[in-house]
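Key result, reporting period 2: structure in, sequence out.
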């Protein structure tokens, strides 16, 4: 922490609400994240590196491209992580696939995601998963719990289904608010995402996402009610008419979507 504070002071870098910045300061959490990135990984895309607490370690062992929206943090990264390629800008407005292709395989995304854009970032990372060997992502604990929810649990929603259908997801470590400077009001969790070999055709991915989102439009209502516009009958899957979206097994969603996508 003293070294980080000195770095921040030298560059006039202060965590701001505008960018949702909470800088990681826990050596335990840093070590766990770095350990979750295998030594065999040759390329890393880091989104939102801040002053470079993770960047400085990971860039020593892999070719790393860091995308940072805060110009002051970009300056600090030049000192803390001289081996990293730092790009100033908004990751949500960039071609992440193109950036990933500039790194060697196997490659991963690492990110301490700002709470205010966690959803859009998860969607963006999912869209480029075919270029990835995995992601190690930090997020609000409540979001991680929803992502990891099991069928039958009320927390399971469209995000849970979409991510669990596309990734094998493992918990890496819990990160209490004290692991950050300044400490946020909530705790965080680090999850590791390993892409599944779904074998889906290119357009099925979008159809799957659209149907899942529609199915959870009103999560506490029945699946038949949420999918009535597309004429879905739960009995076609051998399900009761009262079944709700959070009660469906993850593997059954592909079958359901294919039945709507190609009824033949």
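The corresponding designed sequence is given below.
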């Amino acid at each position: 922490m003293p070294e980080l504070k000195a770095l921040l002071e030298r560059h006039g870098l202060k965590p701001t609400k505008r960018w949702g910045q909470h800088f990681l300061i826990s050596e335990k959490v840093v070590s766990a994240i770095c350990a979750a990135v295998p030594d065999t990984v040759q390329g890393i895309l880091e989104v939102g590196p801040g002053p470079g607490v993770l960047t400085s370690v990971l860039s020593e062992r892999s070719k790393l491209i860091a995308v940072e929206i805060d110009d002051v943090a970009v300056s600090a990264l030049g000192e803390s992580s001289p081996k990293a390629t730092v790009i100033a800008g908004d990751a949500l407005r960039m071609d992440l696939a193109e950036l990933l292709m500039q790194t060697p395989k196997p490659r991963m995304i690492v990110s301490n995601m700002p709470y205010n854009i966690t959803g859009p970032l998860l969607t963006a990372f999912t869209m480029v998963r075919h270029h990835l060997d995995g992601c190690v992502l930090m997020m609000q604990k409540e979001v991680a719990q929803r992502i990891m929810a099991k069928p039958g649990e009320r927390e399971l929603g469209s995000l849970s289904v979409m991510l669990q259908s596309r990734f094998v997801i493992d918990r890496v470590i819990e990160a209490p608010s004290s692991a950050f400077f300044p400490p946020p009001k909530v705790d965080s969790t680090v999850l590791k995402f390993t892409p599944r070999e779904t074998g889906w055709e290119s357009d099925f991915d979008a159809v799957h996402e659209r149907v899942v989102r529609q199915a959870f439009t009103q999560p506490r209502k029945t699946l038949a009610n949420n999918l009535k516009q597309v004429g879905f009958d739960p009995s076609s899957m051998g399900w009761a008419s009262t079944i709700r979206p959070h009660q469906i097994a993850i593997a059954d969603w592909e079958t359901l979507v294919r039945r709507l996508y190609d009824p033949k």
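The chain has a mean pLDDT of 94. Residues 202-261 form a domain with the Helicase, Ruva Protein; domain 3 fold (CATH 1.10.8.100). This case is discussed further under Risks and Mitigation.
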